[in-house]
Amino acid sequence: TRTPTRTPTRTPTRTPTRTPRRTPTRTPTRTPTRTPTRTPTRTPTPTPAHDVYYNFSNKRGSWLWDYTSQGAKASVTNGRLILQVTKRGAVRQYYINRTFSDFTVQVDARQTGGGSDGAYGLVFRHKGDRDCYRFTVTGNGKFEFGKEVNNNWTYFSGYHGAIRNSCINRSGSWNTLKVVCDGSSLKAYVNGCLVAQARDSSFRSGHVGLLVGTESSSSIKVEFDNFILDRR
To answer: How far apart are CA 18 and CA 30, in angstroms?
Structure first.
C-alpha cells in the first residue's frame, strides 16, 4: 500500500508594509514686524506780533507821566506795573511815548488798595496837558466813559455818571479793559463785554496809556499787566 505523499503547506507571502510618504513640513512665513508710524511733532503756532506789548517782566519801557506831582508813584514789581495815588481827588496818567490814530488797546488790571470809588483804566488819543478820551472802572463795579477838553470833563451821550455793570469785577479781582478806536467810532469793553460806545471827532490821534485816580478816598493802588496795542 502506497503511503500518500503529503502536500506541503504553503507559507503565505507577506505583503510588504508600505512606508508612508512623509509630508514635508512647511517652513512658516515670518510676518514682518510693523514699524509704528510716528506721530509728527506739532509745530507750535507762533504768538502773533503786536505793535506794542508790555508784560512788565523787567522794566517799565518807554512810558511817561503826563505830569509829576506829589502823591503819585509808579513801580514795577513781580512783573506788574503798579500805579498809586495817595492824594484825595487826584488823577494821574501814565502813557507811552508814541502817538497812535486808529487802534485796539487792552490791559489787565486790578485794584489792590484804596477806596472802592477810586478809578483806573485807559486814556487814549491823549494830546497836550489834559485833552484826551478816558475809559475807567471803579472798585465797586462801575465804569465811566467820556472826554476831557481844556480841563473840562464831559461824559459821552447816554453814559452820564458812573454806571454799574455786572461784567466788572470788584476790587481785588482782575479786569481786562479794552478800547477800539476806528475814526470817530469809540468802543469800550470789560472782560469781553461791550459796555459802551460813542462817536466823537474831538481827537483823531494821540498818546495811549493808563490812568488811576481818587474821588472821596485818599488813595488808590492798582496793578497792571499785559498791555497790548495793535494798529487798525
So the answer is: 35
Cα gap 76→225, rounded to integer Å? 10
Longest Cα–Cα distance in the chain: 175
Rg (CA), the chain: 43
Buried/exposed 125-144: b ≥16 CB within 10 Å, e otherwise? bbeeebbbbbbbbbbebbbb
Task: State which CATH number among 2.60.120.560, 3.90.180.10, 3.40.50.300, 3.20.20.140 fits the domain covering 52-231.
Answer: 2.60.120.560
> What is the per-residue pLDDT across 73-126, written as a single tens digit (0 to 9) for each?
888 888 899 999 998 988 888 888 899 999 999 999 999 999 998 999 999 999
